[in-house]
Each structure stands twice: as C-alpha cells, then as structure tokens.
Amino acid sequence: MFKARNLIIVFLVILIIALLGVVYYFYKDIQQKESDLEEVTTIMEQEKDRVEEEYENLTYQFDGYTSTIRNDSLLQELEVEKARVKELLEELRKTRSTNAKRIQELKDELDSVRKIMMHLVAQIDSLNTENQQLRTENQQIRLKYAESSQTVELLEKERENLSEVVTRASKLEVVAFNVSTLNDKNRKTGIFSRIASLQFDYTIAKNITAEPGKKTMYIRVTRPDGELLIKDNHNTFAFENRTIGYSAKKDYEYGGEAVEDVIYWIVEEILYPGNYRIDFFTDGDIVGSYTFVLKK
Predict the structure, then answer these.
(1) Long-range Cβ contact pairs of 73-78 (< 8 A, separation 24 or more)
(2) By the 8 A CB rule, do 197 and 182 touch?
C-alpha cells in the first residue's frame, strides 16, 4: 500500500515536471514568434517608409518636369501619372505595416509608374535636345542675319559714298572768270561814271561724268553794301530746298567739253565803287564764286 502511494507521488512529480517543460517550451516558442513578428513588423515598417519616400521623391520629380515642359500632350500624360502617384501614396500611408502583400503590390505599381516616367523623361529630353538645336540654329541664323545686315549696311554706305563721289565728280565748275566794264557803245571803259553794262566772261570746266544736255546758268551779283543786283523780284530759282533771287541767267548746251560763255548786266541803277561778289549756279549747285572791284 505504501509502495503504491509512493509510485503515485513519483508519477505525479514526473507529470508535473513534464507539464512544466511543455509550458516552458510553448512559452519560449511564443516569445520567439513574438520576437520574429516584431522583427518582421520593423522590417515592413522600414520597407513601407522606404517605398513612401520613393513615392514622395517621384512626386517631386514630376513637379520639376511639369513646371518646365511646354508640350501639351506630354504635360497631360505627366499630370495623369502625377495624380496616380498621389493616390498610391495616400493608400500607402493608410496601409498597415503588417500588410506585406499590399505593400509589395504598391511597390510594384511604383516601379510601373517609374518606367512610364522614364519613358516620358526620355521624350522630354529628346524634345529639349531638339529645342536646343533649334535655338542654336536660330542663334546662328540671327548671327548670319546680323552679319548680312552689317554687310548690307557697309555696302549701302559704300554705295552712298560712291554715289557722293560720283555726284561730286559730276558737278560742274566755273574755273575762269573775268569782268569788263562797258560804255553805252559796248566798248571797254575805265571811267566809272560811263559804265553802262558789265560783261562777265566765264569758263565751265570739262567734265565727262556730268550729265549732258540743255542747262541754265544763274548768277547772283552782290554790291559792296550786300544788296543783290536784281531786275525783278520774281526772278528766282530753287536752291537747297528754298527759292532765292538771281541777277541774270543764260541757257547753254553742255556735252562734257569745256564751255566758254558770257553774261551781261545792263546798268540801270546807281553803282557804288568797291568790292563786288558774283556766284554761279547750275543744276541746283553753286559752281563758282569770285570777287571783283569797281574803282571810281
């Protein structure tokens, strides 16, 4: 009887020890699983944070491109993908870290969006390269245009200078002048009171570049007091965009060779002794100026 009781006690002790061992095993197993779960959760949280950061960086990249691109079609595609990234980012933020499957799905979608973006960026870079080439070509065209304009301006100046030289070269010139005082019988006289007319002899120089044809020579004779000798106040001609009076005029034919001619002034007024001035005009230019003295 005593022996049987001892056996029961021993059995119970062994059973209790076994139960304690089982309890300890399950306790340790639970602790390990909790530790593993905690580690997995930490890893998933880190992975979620990393994916979320990639989404945010992708959003910033989209912002950078959409603010500079000018192609409407590409801009619309970028805006669509940008909205998609924004939606995925919002969903990712709401997804639990323990939902590894959905986090992986969102990660895969992020990779898909990134590929689309890389394709669009390649198109943008291609357009930028083309635009840069166009800008370079436009710059080259502008430089060539500027150079051409400068060449045209230089040629125009040279043409103007040449025209001015030709104009000066074609301008007639009175190269010889002499005045004679005549009496009423058209004979030379040195007596001041007997002067009835003034004879102006002059020579127009040879000039083969001057335009030939019928021309008119105008003379202006100025007295010592500065007054113009003039028969009629209506005797005027055009000179330098204005109208001025003349003392006498004469038509002549010019063919490029030297021309010797004479103009008379009939004295009908009182002449004063002193220094006189005579100016010759033809073709709208002043072609000679001389002074002469009438002595009493």
Answers:
(1) 74/120, 74/123, 74/124, 74/127, 77/120, 78/117, 78/120
(2) yes
At 45-74, the pLDDT tens digits run: 666 667 667 666 766 666 665 555 556 676
**Cα–Cα distance list, 199 to 192, 240, 282 (Å):** 14, 28, 19
Measured over the CA atoms of residue 111, residue 113, residue 117 and residue 119, the dihedral's sign is positive
Return the closest-CA partner of residue 211 out of 265, 271, 253, 178. 253
How far apart CA 82 and CA 162 sit, in angstroms, is 68
Which pairs from 49-52 meet CB under 8 Å and 24+ separation? 51/92, 51/103, 51/106, 51/107, 51/110, 52/89, 52/92, 52/93
Is the Cα dihedral 208, 210, 215, 221 positive or negative? negative
pTM: 0.48
